[in-house]
UniProtKB/TrEMBL annotation:
Pfam families tied to this protein: HAD_2 (PF13419)
GO molecular function: sugar-phosphatase activity
Organism field: Tunturiibacter gelidiferens
Leader peptide range in chain numbering: none
Domain of life according to the entry: Bacteria
InterPro entries: HAD-like_sf, HAD-like_SPP, HAD-SF_hydro_IA, HAD_2, HAD_sf, PGP-like_dom2
Protein name as it appears in the record: Beta-phosphoglucomutase-like phosphatase (HAD superfamily)
């Protein structure tokens, strides 16, 4: 993973699919819960909607399929199932390298569409929680990615200008949000893209 030319004063990381290889686990949880409502949630759609808060995903599926899934209940059960399979969680190797290498040199933030509980639990499983100065999660902002608001809040909390931040993201929505915030970004490959590309050591 090649980083853009710096120097940068802060690194802002998306969580799911960027720091933690959690997207496959989230997908298992979604498929299992949505099957009860006969709601199709294709893998391509799931990844395309990466970064969208859970409540927004449920309301979008309801609108798309003419369903009336109870948002809070479905969200709660989906999160609960994710926590059950969380011990299987792994880190994304290339991103972990950058975290280990740069930790202590510049401040880090997590900027996520997931709940604070989900982000905290994922980072705790991997022993990474204490490496981040701040977490900006669903509920901490009004407008989710691709709006720049979540990234701008993180930069403000770190006391760093947006143009001095580098964003690590795995979704187009996240990259758009970073660009709109005036930040440089680096795209983290999706699991199947990582499998196809040769590993450079």
């Amino acid at each position: 993973m090649k980083l853009p030319e710096g120097p940068f004063k802060a690194y802002l990381f998306d969580c799911d699919g960027t720091i933690v290889d959690s997207m496959p686990l989230h997908y298992i949880a979604w498929k299992s819960i949505l099957a009860e409502w006969n709601c199709e949630f294709g893998e391509e759609t799931f990844y395309a909607w990466g970064g969208m808060p859970v409540s927004e995903i449920i309301s979008t599926l309801n609108t798309r399929d003419g369903l009336s899934m109870p948002g809070e209940e479905v969200a709660r059960r989906k999160e609960a199932l994710y926590f059950e399979i969380l011990p299987e969680l792994k880190a994304v190797p290339e991103v972990l390298e950058h975290i280990e290498f740069s930790h202590g040199q510049i401040p880090f933030a997590v900027v996520s569409g997931s709940t604070r509980d989900s982000v905290t639990s994922s980072l705790e499983v991997l022993g990474l929680l204490d490496k981040f100065e701040t977490l900006v999660c669903a509920g901490d902002y009004e407008r989710s990615k691709p709006d720049p608001e979540p990234f701008l809040i993180a930069a403000n909390q770190l006391g760093v200008n947006p143009e001095d931040c580098l964003v690590f993201e795995d979704t187009e929505m996240g990259i758009q949000a970073a660009t709109a915030a005036g930040m440089a970004s680096v795209k983290v490959l999706q699991p199947w893209e990582r499998e196809m590309s040769p590993v450079h050591r």
